[in-house]
Design goal:
The protein has 132 residues and is an all-alpha fold. Helix content is 71%, strand content 0%. It has one domain. The longest helix has 23 residues. It is globular.
């Protein structure tokens, strides 16, 4: 579960980063996404990426071969951006919660910081106001 949610955040952040880099050419927001990906790499390292990978079981994931109808509905680029912000925020919350009951409880706070940075970045992109 932790591996799947780390992947989910990383993938969503890459979509968001590419949106800012190539569509809006917003260097500030693209760099913030890149920083978040590096923070995620530190979380994965603390979780022991090799162990996460060892237990990855994509072949038996009950959702791996299913396409949800809502995944195919993106009216415009902004809805794609919103969907990926929500995906990353939700995955950060899963990591935050499950880290609370693991030997790596300090990762809960790190995941929470990632989640709240995503909330602020999403608001910044919607309003154009700086966050901090």
């Amino acid at each position: 579960m932790l591996d799947a949610n780390c992947n989910r955040i990383r993938e969503a952040l890459r979509v968001i980063e590419e949106y800012f880099r190539f569509i809006t050419e917003n260097e500030y927001a693209a760099k913030e996404c890149k920083k978040l990906r590096h923070e995620l790499a530190a979380i994965e390292g603390a979780l022991n990426h090799e162990v996460l990978l060892k237990y990855r079981d994509a072949d038996n994931d009950c959702f791996a071969d299913r396409i949800q109808p809502e995944e195919m509905q993106r009216e415009k680029q902004s809805s794609l951006l919103t969907a990926n912000f929500k995906r990353a925020q939700e995955a950060a919350r899963v990591i935050e919660e499950f880290a609370k009951i693991s030997p790596t409880q300090d990762l809960s706070e790190k995941a929470k910081k990632v989640r709240f940075t995503l909330y602020r970045l999403e608001k910044y992109t919607a309003t154009g106001k700086q966050y901090g």
